[in-house]
Amino acid sequence: MPDGTYWNQEIETMPREGLEEIQTRLLRDLVDRAVRNSPFYRDLYRKAGVSPGDIQTLADVRHLPFVDKYMMQEAYPHGHLMTPFSEVREFHAATTPTRHMFPIYATEKDIERWGERCARILWMAGLRSGDIVQNAFRFGMSTGGFGFHYGAMTAGMTSIPASIGSTDRQIDLILDLGVTGLTMMPSYAFYLGMRAHERGIDLAKESQLRVGLFGAEPTGTQMKERLGELLGLNAFGEYGMNEFLGPGMACQCRVERGMHSWADDFLLECVDQETGEPVAEGNQGELVWTWLSAEATAVIRFRSHDMSRITWDRCMCGRTHPRVRRIFGRSDGALSIGGFIIYPSRIQDVIHQMPELGPFHVLLDSLRGLDRLLIKVEVRDGVRTPSSELAHRLTSAIRSYLTLTPIVEIMPPGTLAMGEGTSYRVLDYRRGSGRYGAAD
Fold first, then answer.
1. Which tens digits make up the pLDDT trace of 275-297?
2. Residue at 125 is within a domain
3. Residue 13 domain flag
């Protein structure tokens, strides 16, 4: 049972040696189950010349090859499933660089574990049994809203599965029900607060909000301070990936010196993005995750492409689990748009299906705190199809493939500036920077 500061004090404050003993046992069991039950991993490890018997210590994880979204899409639909499908109780999916989804299966045990680690996070941020949590992460095939929904219920809190949108109703719920905690994207939280001001409502003074957990987008110190002032709460950054039933993978504590990652659920490595070799603790590298406690879905040594640092130094809050420092970029050119990870190559794949269209620009900006996706694409010489028809077709196709609705502008031939050897360009005005994306 929870006691004061911690939801599960024994686990959250366990010495590193004890946590690594748990990790070693879980890793050996995971690799054995993956080889026995997952055709994808069985074939991958056979080709790599490794077997479950080679995994005796945590350091032996380096014998196992990395995986990423490009590789895992080859396992679609059931290649990395480790249990009979009849034991699956929930199915989610993550985006990949191609049309295939990355399936995430969850058994009853997986869902219980998910609720447990999200309960720890909610408790760590200062929420308690009896609090009312309004959850405005998306509910759907992505895992966004479900983790904190289960976590709130596990921790004895009331969960409001509001999802994103219907902002006026969200504001009314906060006031009418006495909501004390929010979970949502930071950009949407900012929009919600500004919309409240438009209605003459100061949530910082008129609501009972105390805690906000914000993720799916970068949540820097300035943004957290602005949200704290706008909404009248303590703002915390959290981290999760659909491939691991995120959220619930890591979150800031009240000390706010990095995000605690739960070592009894995940093995976290930080490697050189070029060589794949581990970097010294505290040095910059790419985060690599292994889902140790998973029962249904095998995800072992997954390259997240998130660049950061990790440390095992004991936090002033008393928690001993490794901490992820600020995510300062990605190594694969992927874009975070409104909480979705989008690959420009996927937009290119869609445009290539329309022979009337040629090179394109992807432009990102923010309107009142919300991300916008604008695509400017050249029409080819000699095409007589009306621009309005081409724009409608491309908008519908991208919405179908990426679940995002862009603003599309059809441009005359030769009007878009392109980089040498590229067929598209990415311009991200949210951060005031632009960069080129090479064609596949």
1. 999 999 999 999 999 999 999 99
2. yes
3. yes
Question: pTM of the full predicted structure?
Answer: 0.80
Q: Tens digits of per-residue pLDDT, 52-69?
A: 999 999 999 999 999 988
Q: Would 163 be classed as within a structural domain?
A: yes
Which domain, by its residues, includes 198? Answer: 9-18+77-330
Domain co-membership, 84 together with 151: yes
Whole-angstrom distance, CA of residue 29 vs CA of residue 267: 13
Looking at the fold, whether 359 and 243 belong to one and the same domain comes out as no
Statement to judge: residues 128 and 249 lie in one domain = yes
If one counts the domains in the chain, the total is 2
φ and ψ at residue 76, rounded to 5 degrees? -60, 135
Contact, 427 vs 434, CB < 8 A? Answer: yes
Three-class SS state of 84:
coil
The string of DSSP letters for 216-250 reads SS---HHHHHHHHHHHTSEEEEEE--GGGT-SSSE
Determine how β-strand 132-135 pairs with β-strand 181-184.
parallel
Highest average pLDDT, of 93-102, 299-308, 331-340, comes from 299-308
> Cα–Cα distance between 416 and 379 in angstroms, integer?
11
The answer to whether 216 and 143 are in contact (CB under 8 A) is no
Contacts of 292 (CB under 8 A, 6+ apart): 23, 26, 27, 30, 264, 265, 266, 267
Does 284 share its domain with 360? no
| CA pair distance 102, 72, nearest whole angstrom | 7
Give yes or no: residues 321 and 343 share one domain: no
Residue listed under structure tokens 């005796």:
56
Please, what is the angle between helix 39-48 and helix 16-37, to 10°? 100
Could you tell me how far CA 114 lies from the centroid of its own chain? 14
For the stretch 167-186, pLDDT in tens is: 999 999 999 999 999 999 88
